Amino acid sequence: MTKRTRLLAIVAVAAAGALGLAGCSSGSSSSSSSSTFVEVTAAQPQSFSYETSATGYEAAEFFMNTGATLIRNKYVAGTGGQSAHEDYNDFTGVLAKSYDVSSDGLTYTFHLDTKARSNYGDKLTADDVIWTMQRKFAVSTSIVPFISAPFITSATQFKKVDDSTVTLTVAKASYGYTALSLLANVGYNIYDADVLKKHTTSSDPWAVKWSGTHANFGFGAYKLTSYTPGEQMVYDANPYYPLGEPKVKRIVQREVADAGQRSNLVKSGDAQIATQLRPADQISLQKSKSAQIFTVPTNAYVYMPLLTSKGTFKDVNVRKALAYAIPYDKINSNVYHGRATSISTILSDKDPGFDGDGLTANSTDIAKAKSILSAAGYTSPVKFTLTVNNSVPDLMEAAVQIQTAVKAAGFDVTINAVNSAAFQTGLADKSFEASIQRDYAVVQSPPYVLSLFYTPKSVINWPDFTSSELMSDIAAGNAAGDPTGAAAGKEWNAAQKVLQSQMPTIYINYVQPLNAFATNVKGYVFRSDNVIDYSQLSLK
């Protein structure tokens, strides 16, 4: 076996107790001291279980900060005015001290940090890893099988060697990069199996229902110590976090529905962090030197999934016509105030083998839109409902821009603004004709990005889109060797051209993070999941 060991900075840990929460009253108030940060958010997670509710900004931030993975992407300093961010091609450890790769590139051996303990005080063992993987692939509502194929398709690919060692075996050496990228993100958080096993039942054999209302069964940097539904959540630092106890000891996360109020709370100093802001408010905070906003190598895009399996958008002509009717430049300027750019590729053009030949950003052409509809036989306005999450102000503004602009092309749009819970439910049910979202691919491996929202029957295939040509191109890329190599790049290019020709999703733009930080906060790192890693924060 050839060793390619990545050493980690791991600190000694000791047992820690944690509080399982089903709906406790709040026991914390705000503070601007270095030990407590207040964060104001638009909503709260719908569940504490990733296997039942994995989507939404607040859920992603919760899972990231209360959980821990075997490895993560390395954090690197930004250049050219950009913030610190992840290096998608380099991995460092969290719950694993190091890993080795076999000479044939098929087997990855992870050496666990056996001193690590969960928030319940239980010691990390290989059994926790194996049971966690079994749960992720056994639970019917889990998105892990969909987002992981073909790189990881079964829990049986993970084997226990001894109490401190586990292996992952992949079918092809070219799968290794994407498999590592998957393991580095929250979908592969490791659970305290001993805690969850105590709450299994015949009807809930993996304790999924129990974990939906009880937090702290992970090994994360923070544990949830107080929860008041609809009001606030309080996180306390885990002093036994393997990468070191966080400098900020408490995060008070308050739900504040109005984006303007969230902005004002940072400006006044009553909050250190605000998320889901309006870009106009961000620019105002920056100009007044009231808060910091950051420029990053963003992977977040605004897009419109269109339901392709029935109804209005089953006709590809209607999808293409709408794509020409969207006012892209106006959205970039009027909604995002310079913090958005046109999108011609959903893959990173920084990959060594990136091939952008023939890929162009969508553009507005009302005459072309009208021509497509006319040629397809549409003589009266095409009516559809555009659903938007009313807690995300930039998307509400973008929806209005779209509603107004597309009338000239022959579309009649009704905006359906719903709360976060209803929005997530509708997405899962595939009941929206069209929706507007801000989203991203957490794993930045090209085949993952291309498969994420388009794998047939996937619970996150929002457009309910099926294309044998797309799947064939992705399979060819996976067979081409290095996923970031030139040979694979040609196949990824072909796959993107399928998406552009079939338009199951209208990609509108790339957007910068819509958060703001008090001027004395440091440590922000941009992550591919677009959430804030509390463990990196401190005061200047």
Keyphrases for this structure?
single chain, 540 residues, alpha+beta, D-Maltodextrin-Binding Protein, domain 2, Dipeptide-binding Protein, domain 3, 2 domains, six-stranded mixed sheet, disordered N terminus, peptide transmembrane transporter activity, SBP_5, transport, signal
3D structure, described in words:
One of its GO terms (cellular component) is cell envelope. The protein folds into two domains: 36-253 and 515-539, Periplasmic binding protein-like II (D-Maltodextrin-Binding Protein, domain 2), CATH 3.40.190.10; 301-511, Dipeptide-binding Protein, domain 3. Helix 9 packs antiparallel against helix 11 (366-375). Mean pLDDT is 92; it is low at 1-32. The two termini are 45 Å apart. It is 28% helix and 20% strand. It is of the alpha+beta class and 540 residues long. The chain is globular, with a radius of gyration of 23 Å.
